[in-house]
Every structure is written in structure tokens, then in C-alpha cells.
């Protein structure tokens, strides 16, 4: 286990390194407009431009610039997203301040959607698997097929059009200022985003659960369990589902991590002030530090989730041992 | 965001002015209009929606943006001179004394300006015991000149003796600024500037209090806040950010906690400033008790919320979606809730004098005839959104001297989309050196694939296609490259890019109600810069400059003499001078195709009882809006 | 989802056996492709999907002809005075403009037709690139194992850990905003750029599957035999291994097409996909996002086409997978790769477009 952890940590560092270098190259080496010119206002004197370049660190060699940013990615207090480097070139607001204030929205969105996709996806998959080739199975699988085929942004527009604009039963998009996250949840502001975001994953999970469960039910140990005289319900839920759900649990970790890094499209369409919307706004004006912050934070979530998933997997599947 | 979000990111263009004539589109038009007819009552909270945050986190020396200027003028900051927040028919573009006791005294050589300050005016908490004095104004100008602050528009103050020397580190003080006593400010200039008064109504000159812990600090309470003074702003107007009283300037800057009422990119909360004394201020009625501003959202969604009463108005550089304009204008119940007023801003297409075929004035005139301005406007939302422009500077800034002046008029302003318009364009093209066979259609290779930059919003794209279709009829084909707003500006700002044509997505808005703010940045040769060049057409560039930027055409027309002639003038003579310059521009230089003089369109919720349009701010007067109790 | 209908499939050949009279014939001459086709055509959904895709391809191909001879105008031609009212609002579907006008007064029908071209071109280009990179990486890793395998596997893990959408947005906007593209003109704005970016992020899914297959195949007797006969590594990979993994490659390639279609639409929806003058369903829907309350057709028609396309590719992909009898390869793959294969099944980054 020790060696495994070390290997994992090294991988952790590798991913962060690659992500930060790639992000750095994309957004610093290939920008369309010099951030100093943009920050300088109209009619800047050369001296003013030089001052701003110096302030942004743009006058230093590239590797020094990179190192300054990289230091801010080390997850230690005082270094992580430090204010000296990680501030918006637009308005000088520290990136950490913006990210932390937006994190609750993204977490609410992700957790709510995750609960929904589990509650929809797994039951449909189970029912389809234990009643294959029936009407209920077909309906479930048609739902799944539609779900995986519909683009999120289109679903979001349709949902807004139907439930807010036409029927008036859902609130419009956005969160008013000063409204706490709990009030927003109670007022149902997250309902449409949750369902929109959850649909495709729910559809995918139902297909996966169905396939896994059907395969599990044909395994020898199930036959053994049946032969022992266990009730069919017990066989399915105790033995079949356990092995069918193992990959679901692990995949679930990755999916949640992905979304915690910012559900850009959902947050943009529903105007939720989360991390994804923050990143997207920064990208449109090529505001590098926030982009770097969010991108690496996203990668961090994914790597941590990977780690957690491996540990959980070891618990769920006794055959797996990490050496 | 529609086309009107012209300055959201770059803050290229700013502020506002007067409209001598009210002749906007369909709706409002009255200075003050009260749907219920009741007298405005004090109190209540105004709910404002904004698409995006201001551009420099409310730092008064940096902000160079229409929306932040409006908040400063109406609510947060007082300046020596200011405006009354009404439309141009009610002196909305006239300067009034604000912190000053009267208009400045100007010496006979026009080089020394003396302002006298009112006594007994105090700052908002926590500086409620500090009186506003002349050195506080000087402090603000030092901050504007301090390089590490990276201020927004220091160029307006370069006429002050020693200002640019200080900014460039050549002098330790600004010699032209002095305060003989606490309530007298003397400003010495290096050359006459008839419009200096306007520049002392800009937020960069709003007083900054001295630091309680270090009275000698040059930047006062803004010391140590080069990048974030907006979040520590000490207000002087009728409102302040909520929680201002908790600011503590006695500790080191790095330990101070920023004001709670401004959360960048999210919200503002403005409350009454207890230090503000209405008896010293006859420019701002300040009806509501508080303003809540929510940032973020799509125009159409925000419009919908206003209609539903969830918000009171959208306050941004955008216009309501055409759908809402139609609905509010045509529904009897809603007619009182839409207001259309002329701004002092325009939209125009530009031709680069250094890139063939636009080095030939006949080609430029032909293009002026060919473009379908009416179609262009319809794509943008129809007649409510703008007046069709016949020349460069908005009519209201020229006292309507050029109201009926349109040297390239075509039937219904539809250009080459009408047979007569096309004929006019062809007749002009036939005289050019690029139409070899004289049939009115350019047949020279330089007319093919003309490098054109467009904004990639859907409206700008459609307008670019329309212009493309129009110009095709006279043989000019455009090679349109599309970019996001900020990247598109980035392209045209660099004269080395040789952008030959822009399709009308770029506009200009006054900084203050004087045509100087149009001609100087856009048409003045000495103002051509390596970076951030707003003279896209290269009007007045010298042969050396043209060579330096790699142009093959090195002789381009100039109108520097016509512009410089107006600098020292004041009053009606100045306006007449600008009008003459505009005519000269349209007949002898022709670097642009004027398309629209924009309107401001605002829809408000039904509980707003006292609509007033600020001609200076080119937007609603937030301090005049009142709420039905 | 690889196993979705594995059990179901196992029964299919029997349940669809043709009448007895033809049986002898079949015993004689059924190649694997015959078997495949026999199964595939039983899948009505898959056939439906295939028909729709064929229809779409034809539409995309003849779009210029339709625009020239049927409706007599191009996708970007404006009808400012006939199709927009005085407030600039578009008119709905009518005899002249079958899908109505878009918010700029263009014919939405022609726009949608041309949008099909964009979607299909990007989907095929991107998927093709992903396939080429994925197959090469997968075959090399699986065949050589050891350090090379470790390297490729780590690379796959790293790419799968990237915040795909953010980086894609960054790449497209960084490179798409320069006239000359970026990296010295190597990457130019346009369809190719978008395809490359999408391909760059979707190859690991193919590489993973291929690697698993190759790992098991390389131990098989016929590979041993080839080696004994003196065949080199290259020959073995090309001649012996590649032909044996064609089926899974086709299946998984088909299955990532719909993801890539959505990916392109998402980029365009956010305003940084294909150039603005190129009609794209994503961009049309982005325009509709401000207009849906008064011009439902701008949301419905491009959306239905986009949805139909992804659905069709998903149906065909499912059908292909079932027809190739995935049970065999999924099994071997799973056994050899028990731990690594979890959670990666056939899923293609759906979060990328969330």
C-alpha cells in the first residue's frame, strides 16, 4: 500500500505539472491581446506599459513566470493561489476570493445533480435488467438512449423555455445577490439545472447498471446463491447488485470530480455564478490567472477523486490489492 | 449582449453628454416622466440588474467606462463641477458647480483656472469628520499621474503644467497644481483648453481624503491600494457602499478589510451616505434609500425579470432585446415603462486611408452611398435603437447645427439596396482610378478580398454580411475575419495590422459633452499610437508613421488644422468650429461611413414613478428614480 | 455500456434463424462479415439510425444545390426587409422560409442544412484523428508492454485527468483568434482546428480499448507462429494484430462520434467553435438562447437535427457493437485488465459538454 501511495502521489504531481504547463502555454504563450495593453487604459505611455508588465511579471523570462504560477499551485497555505500572482488582470480581485465565493454554487449544483442521476439511473438499470425485453425495459432503454444523445445546452434551453417561459412553474435563471445558497435551493432555483445536468449521466448509468447486472446474474456464484434457496430478491440485491454497482461507484467519483471543476455549459446557460462560469468569463477576455487557478483546481479534483476511487474500489472488490 | 455592449471589456469609450434636441425614437422623451403623475417619494430600494461588472473594480482613477462613470456621478462621488442628471432639454449637459461655489475663474491668457470650494462638506463614514478641501482634489490628480496606479485617462490632464513630467518620473511634484488655502484650487496649463471644466467633472478628480495614520502620504487613504482602491472607496455623494463605516484606514493598507457592499463580479449594495447634506447639493435629489445591484445574466432574461417586477431596470451598455422593445411599445399597459432617449454616441464603419482601394476618395464616397443604413439598423433592432447618421458627431453635441446634413443621402437611407442609391454609388466609383472601364464597378484586384474585421456577435455578423452584400454591387469584396469584441478591438488598435475595413461594430461615445472627445481620439494625426490606436483610418498620419507601420501608401489626408483650430475656443464658437470640422471630414477626408446615432432604451418595472434621463451619463439617472410606496 | 445487451445478443442468432429451407446454404458459406451483417440488419433501430445518417450525408452534400435551385439563396444571405419586422424580429416558418428566419433574417432551413456539413465534417475529422492516434498508441503500448506501455498508460491517465472543455476552449480561442493561427501557423482557425482539438482529447478512449485487445492477442498462437516464421514487429502489428481488432475499433469509433458531434456543437454554442461565417448547429442554438421566447423555431430546428444526429450515431454504434458480438472481446479485455478497465468501459467524457 505504501508503494502504491507513493506512486499515486507522483502521478498526482505529474498531472498537476502537465496541466499547469499546458494551460500556461495555451493561455500565456498564445494570447490574442497583450494583457498589459488591455489593463493600461487608453493612450498608455510606454512607461506605463512597462510598469504594468512588471507588475504582472510579464517582463520576466517565461520559466520564471511559469514558476511563479506553479508555486501558487502547491496546496499549502500561503502558497496556494497566493494573491501576489493569482489576481485578475481585469480588476485585481484575488482569484482565491472569487473561487471560494463561487465554490458553494458549483458544489450545490454537482451534489444535487449527482443525487438525481443516481436516483434515476440505478433503479431504471436494475428494473430493466431484471425484466429484460419487457415494455418497462424498452421504455427504460429508450430513455437512456435519448438521454445520452441530447446535448446539455439544448436541454437547458428547452427546459427554460418549457418550464419557466411557457408553464411558469420553474424560476428563471440566476441567483439574486445576497440570497444565501440555502434560500436559493428552497426557492427551487437549482431544480432545472440539476435535472438538466443529471439527465445524460443518469441515462448512461442506467445502461451500465443494466448491462453489468445482467452479466452478473449469469455468473456461477449467482447460480450457487439461487441453489442455496435464497429468495430472488435477496439474490439480486445482495449478490448481483454488489458486483454490478462496483464500477458505478468508482465512476461516480470521477463524474463528481469533473463537475466540481466547473460545469461550464450548465452554469453559463442557467447563469449560476459558479466556478465554470467564472472560468468561462475569464477565457473570453483571456484573463490568465483565473483560468490557471480554475483549470488546476479542476485537475486537482480529478486526481483526488482518482485516489479515492482506488481506495473505495479496494474495499468493494476484495480481489484488488494495491502493491 | 447586443451590439450596444460596445465598451464592456475595453472601456474604449466613455461618458456622456447633452442632447440639445429630444428627438429620439418612439417612447419617453420627457425630462421627468411619472407614469402615475404623483410627486416622487423618498425611500425604498432600487433593484438594478447589470450584465457585467465595471471594468476596474470601481477605482475612480482607473475606471474609464460608461457604467462606472454613471454610478460615480449620480451617487458616489462629487467633483468640483458636475451635471444635473437631466436630459439635454433641461440643461443635462451643462456644467454646474458641485463641490465648487461657482464656475471657475479663467485668466485672460486662458492658462490659469481658479476654483473655489464650498466649505463644510464632509466625506462619508468612516471619514465623516474630515472636511473636503482643495488638497484632496490635488491628491486625486497625483494618483491619476502615478505610474504604479496605471490610471485610465491621464492624457486629459497633460495640459496641466508638470503633469506629464511627474507621470514620467522627471519631476517630484506637479507644478501646475496648487492650493493657496484649503478652499482654493489653482490650475496652471501649458496651453489653452476651453473644455478644462469638463475634465474637472470626471471621477478622476473626485477628492481623496488624507490618510489618518500618515497625513503626509501623497495618495492619502488610497496609499497601498494601487490596485484596489475601489474596494476602499471613501464616498462624497449621496450614497456609499454598504459597510463603508467599517473601513479602517488607521492600520496598514494590507491589514485593512475591504468594504462589504461591493463584491466584484457579483453585486453592489449602495446605501445613504449619512454625511451627505442635501442643502449643499442641488444636483442630486437622491430619492431611493438604497440600491441593490446584481451582476450577471443575459439581456433577455433580465428584461423578462424587469417585466415580471423581479428587478426595476437593467443598467448596462446594452439595449433590451427587440422582442421587449416591440412588446413594451405596442402594449398599452407597458407603454409607460419604456423610455427611449438619444445618447451622444455613434456607430460607424471605417476605411483605412493607407490600404487600397480606400486611398482613393471616390471609392470611399462610393462606399458611403452603397451601404444600406436602414437595413443595418433593422438588424440591430429597428428605428427605436438609433437615428440614422449622416455625419460623424452626434447631432446633440453640435447643437443640431448639422441636423439635416447628410452628404451621401440615398432613398430611405437604403444605399445600394435601392436602384437610385446604387446609381449614386456607381457614379462615384466610376470616377475612381480603380474602376478602369468606368462602369461603376471596381475592377481592380485591390478591390478583391479587402481585409475586414468584424465582431462575432450574431448582430454584428449579420450586419457585416449586409455590408458585404452592398459592397459587392460596386465590385468590392470583403474578406471578413471575426473575433470576440475584445480581440476585434485588439486587431484594429494595432496600426501594423493594416485592417482595411471595419463593419460598423465599433462605436464611439463621448467622454464629456464636447466634440473634442470625438475628434481628438479618432481623427487627430498626432494621436496615432503604436498600441491602442483608436484612429483606425490613420487620418493625419505622417509619411514617416505610414512607413514605420509598413504601409505602401504614405500620403494620407489630414484634418489636424481643422481640429486644432477649435482647441482654445469656448461656447457657441467652439460648437460651430466642431460642426465645420465634421463637414470637412465628411467632404474632404471621408475616412468613415457614419451609420447610427444610438439611442438609450430602458425598460423599467411598474413601481418606478419618476423616470429621468441623464444626458451626461447617457443612461437613467439613478438618483432621480423613485419607487411607488 | 459495452455489455448492455450482451446477454440479449447471445440469444439473437438463434431467435432470428431463417426458415429451415435455407439452412444448408448458410452452413456452407458464412464469413464473419455475413454473420455480422445478418445480425446488424435485424436491428431495426440501428438500421433506422443508419438511414438517418445516410439521409443527413446526402443533405449535407446537396446543400449547395438545394440552396441554389430549390430555395434560390445561400445560408448567409440576408432578407432584412422581408423576413424581419420593423423591430428586427424574425418571421416564423412559412411557405417561403420553411424553418422560418433566424434573428438576422437568414433562412434557417438553409442554415441548418449547411450546419449538417459542419457537424459531419468535424465529427468525422475529429473521430478519424482520434482513431489514428488511439490505434497507434494502443497497439504500440499493448504490443511492447513494459516501459512503453507504462508511458502510454500514464499519458492516457493524464489526458483523462485534464479539464477537457476548459483547455479546448483555451486552445480554440487562442489559436482561432490569430490570423496566422498559432504554433507558427501549424494550427489555423477553422474546421480543422476544432477537429484537431476534439481529436486530441478523445483518442485515449480508443487507445485504452485497443491496448487491452492487443495485450491478449499478442499471446495468441498465430502471433507466435508469425514470429517463428521470422516476421518483424511491424509486420506482426500490421498483418496479424490489426486485422483482428478491426471490429472493436469500428465499434468504439462509432460510439465516440456522437460525443464529438456534441463537443463541436458545445464549442460553437460558447461562441468559439467554427468561424462565425460557417453555419453550425451549436452557433444557431447559441443565437436562439436569447431569442427562444419569441422565436421558438430558432431553438427547435437546429436542436432537433443535432439531437437526431447524435441519436442516430448512438443507435448505429449500439447496433454495430451487438452485431460484432462484443461478448468475446469484452470478456478477454475484462479479464486481462480487470482493475484498469473499471470505470472506463465505453464511456466518452460526457462531462466535457456539461
Task: Give a quick rundown of the structure.
Chain A has 323 residues and is mostly helical.
Task: Report on this structure.
The complex is a heterotrimer of chains A (323), B (629) and C (354). Chain A has 323 residues and is an all-alpha fold. In chain A, 73% of the residues lie in helices and 0% in strands. In chain A, helix 9 crosses helix 11 (232-260), helix 10 runs antiparallel to helix 11 and helix 11 (232-260) packs antiparallel against helix 14. Chain A is globular and about 85 Å long. With 629 residues, chain B is an alpha+beta fold. Chain B has two domains: 45-293 and 605-627, D-Maltodextrin-Binding Protein, domain 2 (3-Layer(aba) Sandwich); 342-600, Dipeptide-binding Protein, domain 3 (Roll), CATH 3.10.105.10. Chain B contains 15 helices and 22 strands. In chain B, strands 14, 15, 16, 17, 18, 19 and 20 form a seven-stranded mixed sheet that branches. In chain B, strand 10 and strand 11 (267-272) form a beta hairpin. In chain B, helix 7 runs antiparallel to helix 9. The longest helix of chain B is centred in the last third of the chain and has 19 residues, at 571-589. Chain C has a single domain, classed as MetI-like (MetI-like fold). Chain C is built from 16 helices and no strands. Chain C is elongated.
Amino acid at each position: 500500500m505504501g508503494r502504491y501511495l507513493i506512486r499515486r502521489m507522483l502521478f498526482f504531481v505529474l498531472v498537476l505539472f502537465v496541466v499547469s504547463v499546458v494551460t500556461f502555454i495555451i493561455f500565456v504563450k498564445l494570447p490574442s491581446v497583450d494583457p498589459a495593453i488591455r489593463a493600461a487604459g487608453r493612450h498608455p505611455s510606454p512607461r506605463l506599459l512597462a510598469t504594468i508588465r512588471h507588475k504582472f511579471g510579464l517582463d520576466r523570462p517565461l520559466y520564471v513566470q511559469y514558476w511563479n504560477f506553479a508555486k501558487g499551485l502547491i496546496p499549502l497555505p500561503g502558497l496556494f493561489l497566493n494573491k501576489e500572482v493569482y489576481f485578475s488582470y481585469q480588476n485585481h480581485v484575488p482569484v482565491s476570493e472569487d473561487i471560494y465565493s463561487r465554490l458553494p454554487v458549483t458544489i450545490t449544483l454537482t451534489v444535487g445533480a449527482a443525487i438525481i442521476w443516481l436516483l434515476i439511473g440505478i433503479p431504471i438499470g436494475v428494473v430493466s435488467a431484471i425484466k429484460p425485453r419487457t415494455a418497462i425495459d424498452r421504455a427504460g432503454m429508450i430513455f437512456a438512449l435519448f438521454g445520452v444523445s441530447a446535448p446539455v445546452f439544448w436541454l437547458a434551453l428547452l427546459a427554460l423555455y418549457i418550464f419557466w417561459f411557457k408553464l411558469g412553474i420553474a424560476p428563471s435563471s440566476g441567483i439574486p445577490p445576497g440570497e444565501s445558497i440555502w434560500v436559493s435551493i428552497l426557492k427551487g432555483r437549482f431544480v432545472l439545472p440539476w435535472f438538466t445536468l443529471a439527465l445524460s449521466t443518469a441515462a448512461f448509468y442506467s445502461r451500465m447498471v443494466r448491462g453489468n447486472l445482467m452479466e452478473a446474474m449469469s455468473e456461477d456464484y449467482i447460480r450457487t446463491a439461487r441453489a442455496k434457496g435464497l429468495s430472488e430478491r435477496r439474490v439480486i440485491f445482495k449478490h448481483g447488485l454488489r458486483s454490478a454497482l462496483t464500477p458505478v461507484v468508482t465512476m461516480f467519483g470521477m463524474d463528481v470530480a469533473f463537475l466540481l471543476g466547473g460545469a461550464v455549459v450548465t452554469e453559463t446557460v442557467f447563469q449560476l455564478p459558479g466556478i465554470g462560469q467564472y472560468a468561462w468569463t475569464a477565457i473570453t477576455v483571456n484573463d490568465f490567472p483565473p483560468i490557471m487557478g480554475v483549470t488546476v483546481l479542476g485537475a486537482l479534483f480529478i486526481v483526488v477523486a482518482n485516489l479515492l476511487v482506488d481506495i473505495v474500489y479496494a474495499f468493494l472488490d476484495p480481489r484488488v490489492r494495491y502493491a | 449582449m447586443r451590439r450596444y455592449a460596445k465598451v464592456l471589456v475595453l472601456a474604449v469609450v466613455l461618458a456622456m453628454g447633452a442632447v440639445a434636441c429630444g428627438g429620439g425614437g418612439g417612447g419617453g422623451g420627457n425630462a421627468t416622466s411619472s407614469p402615475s403623475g404623483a410627486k416622487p417619494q423618498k425611500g425604498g430600494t432600487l433593484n438594478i440588474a447589470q450584465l457585467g461588472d465595471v471594468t476596474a473594480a470601481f477605482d475612480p482613477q482607473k475606471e474609464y467606462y460608461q457604467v462606472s462613470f454613471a454610478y460615480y456621478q449620480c451617487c458616489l462621488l462629487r467633483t468640483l463641477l458636475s451635471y444635473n442628471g437631466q436630459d439635454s432639454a433641461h440643461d443635462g449637459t451643462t456644467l454646474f458647480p458641485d463641490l465648487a461655489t461657482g464656475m471657475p475663474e479663467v485668466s485672460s491668457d486662458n492658462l490659469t483656472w481658479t476654483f473655489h470650494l464650498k466649505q463644510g462638506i464632509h466625506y462619508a463614514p468612516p471619514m465623516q469628520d474630515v472636511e473636503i478641501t482643495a488638497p484632496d482634489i490635488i491628491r486625486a490628480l497625483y494618483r491619476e499621474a502615478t505610474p504604479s496606479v496605471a490610471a485610465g485617462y491621464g492624457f486629459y490632464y497633460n495640459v496641466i503644467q508638470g503633469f506629464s513630467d511627474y507621470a514620467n518620473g522627471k519631476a517630484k511634484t506637479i507644478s501646475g497644481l496648487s492650493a493657496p488655502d484649503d478652499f482654493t484650487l489653482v490650475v496652471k496649463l501649458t496651453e489653452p483648453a476651453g473644455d478644462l471644466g469638463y475634465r474637472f467633472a470626471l471621477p478622476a478628480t473626485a477628492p481623496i481624503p488624507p490618510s489618518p495614520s500618515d497625513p503626509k502620504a501623497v495618495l492619502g487613504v488610497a496609499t497601498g491600494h494601487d490596485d484596489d482602491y475601489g474596494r476602499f472607496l471613501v464616498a462624497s455623494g449621496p450614497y456609499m457602499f454598504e459597510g463603508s463605516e467599517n473601513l479602517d484606514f488607521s492600520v496598514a493598507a494590507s491589514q485593512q478589510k475591504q468594504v462589504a457592499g461591493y463584491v466584484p463580479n457579483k453585486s453592489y449594495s449602495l446605501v445613504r451616505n449619512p454625511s451627505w447634506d442635501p442643502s449643499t447639493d442641488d444636483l442630486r435629489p437622491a430619492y431611493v434609500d438604497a440600491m441593490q445591484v446584481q451582476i450577471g445574466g443575459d439581456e433577455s432574461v433580465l428584461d423578462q425579470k424587469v417585466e415580471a417586477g423581479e428587478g426595476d431596470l437593467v443598467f448596462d451598455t446594452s439595449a433590451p432585446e427587440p422582442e421587449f422593445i416591440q412588446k413594451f411599445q405596442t402594449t398599452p399597459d407597458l407603454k409607460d415603462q419604456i423610455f427611449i432617449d438619444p445618447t451622444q454616441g455613434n456607430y460607424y464603419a471605417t476605411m483605412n486611408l493607407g490600404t487600397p482601394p480606400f486611398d482613393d476618395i471616390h471609392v470611399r464616397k462610393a462606399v458611403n452611398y452603397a451601404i444600406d443604413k436602414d437595413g443595418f439598423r433593422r438588424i440591430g433592432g429597428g428605428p427605436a435603437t438609433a437615428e440614422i447618421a449622416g455625419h460623424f458627431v452626434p447631432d446633440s453635441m453640435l447643437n443640431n447645427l448639422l441636423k439635416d446634413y447628410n452628404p451621401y443621402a440615398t432613398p430611405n437611407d437604403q444605399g445600394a439596396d435601392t436602384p437610385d442609391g446604387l446609381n449614386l454609388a456607381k457614379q462615384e466609383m466610376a470616377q475612381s482610378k480603380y474602376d478602369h472601364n468606368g462602369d461603376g464597378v471596381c475592377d481592380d484586384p485591390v478591390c478583391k478580398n479587402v481585409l475586414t474585421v468584424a465582431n462575432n456577435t450574431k448582430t454584428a455578423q449579420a450586419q457585416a454580411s449586409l455590408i458585404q452584400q452592398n459592397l459587392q454591387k460596386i465590385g468590392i469584396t470583403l474578406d471578413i475575419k471575426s473575433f470576440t469584441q475584445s480581440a476585434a478591438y485588439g486587431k484594429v488598435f494595432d496600426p501594423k495590422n493594416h485592417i482595411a475595413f471595419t463593419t460598423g461594430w465599433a462605436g464611439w461615445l463621448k467622454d464629456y459633452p464636447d466634440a473634442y472627445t470625438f475628434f481628438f481620439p479618432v481623427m487627430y494625426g498626432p494621436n496615432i499610437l503604436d498600441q491602442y490606436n483608436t484612429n483606425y483610418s490613420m487620418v493625419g498620419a505622417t509619411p514617416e508613421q505610414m512607413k514605420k507601420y509598413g504601409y505602401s501608401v504614405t500620403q494620407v489626408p489630414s484634418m489636424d488644422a481643422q481640429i486644432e483650430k477649435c482647441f482654445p475656443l469656448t461656447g457657441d464658437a467652439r460648437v460651430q468650429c466642431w460642426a465645420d470640422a465634421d463637414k470637412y471630414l465628411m467632404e474632404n477626408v471621408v475616412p468613415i461611413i457614419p451609420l447610427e446615432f444610438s439611442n438609450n432604451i430602458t425598460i423599467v418595472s411598474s413601481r418606478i414613478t419618476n423616470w429621468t434621463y441623464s444626458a451626461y451619463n447617457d443612461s437613467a439617472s439613478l438618483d432621480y428614480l423613485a419607487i411607488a410606496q | 455500456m459495452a455489455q448492455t445487451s450482451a446477454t440479449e445478443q447471445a440469444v439473437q442468432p438463434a431467435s432470428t434463424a431463417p426458415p429451415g429451407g435455407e439452412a444448408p446454404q448458410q452452413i456452407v458459406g458464412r464469413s464473419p462479415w455475413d454473420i455480422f451483417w445478418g445480425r446488424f440488419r435485424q436491428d431495426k433501430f440501428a438500421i433506422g439510425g443508419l438511414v438517418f445518417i445516410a439521409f443527413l450525408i446526402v443533405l449535407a452534400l446537396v446543400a449547395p444545390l438545394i440552396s441554389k435551385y430549390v430555395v434560390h439563396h445561400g445560408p448567409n444571405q440576408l432578407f432584412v426587409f422581408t423576413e424581419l419586422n420593423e423591430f428586427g424580429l424574425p418571421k416564423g416558418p412559412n411557405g417561403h422560409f420553411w424553418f422560418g428566419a433566424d434573428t438576422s433574417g437568414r433562412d434557417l432551413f438553409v442554415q441548418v442544412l449547411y450546419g449538417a456539413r459542419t457537424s459531419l465534417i468535424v465529427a468525422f475529422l475529429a473521430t478519424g484523428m482520434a482513431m489514428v492516434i488511439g490505434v497507434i498508441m494502443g497497439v504500440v503500448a499493448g504490443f511492447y508492454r513494459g516501459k512503453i506501455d507504462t508511458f502510454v498508460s500514464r499519458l492516457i491517465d493524464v489526458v483523462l485527468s485534464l479539464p477537457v472543455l476548459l483547455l479546448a476552449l483555451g486552445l480554440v480561442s487562442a489559436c482561432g483568434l490569430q490570423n496566422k493561427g498559432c504554433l507558427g501557423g501549424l494550427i489555423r482557425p477553422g474546421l480543422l482546428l476544432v477537429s484537431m482539438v476534439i481529436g486530441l482529447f478523445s483518442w485515449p478512449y480508443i487507445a485504452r480499448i485497443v491496448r487491452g485487445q492487443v495485450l491478449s492477442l499478442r499471446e495468441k498462437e498465430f502471433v507466435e507462429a508469425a514470429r517463428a516464421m521470422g516476421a518483424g514487429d511491424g509486420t506482426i502489428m500490421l498483418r496479424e494484430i490489426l486485422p483482428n481488432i478491426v471490429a472493436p475499433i469500428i465499434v468504439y469509433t462509432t460510439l465516440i462520434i456522437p460525443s464529438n458531434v456534441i463537443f463541436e456543437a458545445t464549442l460553437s454554442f460558447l461562441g468559439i467553435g467554427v468561424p462565425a461565417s460557417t453555419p453550425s448547429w451549436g452557433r444557431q442554438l447559441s443565437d436562439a438562447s436569447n431569442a427562444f421566447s419569441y422565436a421558438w423555431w430558432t431553438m427547435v430546428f437546429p436542436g432537433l437535427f443535432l439531437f437526431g444526429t447524435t441519436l442516430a450515431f448512438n443507435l448505429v454504434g449500439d447496433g454495430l457493437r451487438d452485431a460484432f458480438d462484443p461478448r468475446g472481446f469484452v470478456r478477454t479485455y475484462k479479464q486481462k485488465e480487470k482493475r484498469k478497465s473499471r470505470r472506463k468501459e465505453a464511456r466518452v467524457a460526457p462531462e466535457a459538454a456539461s
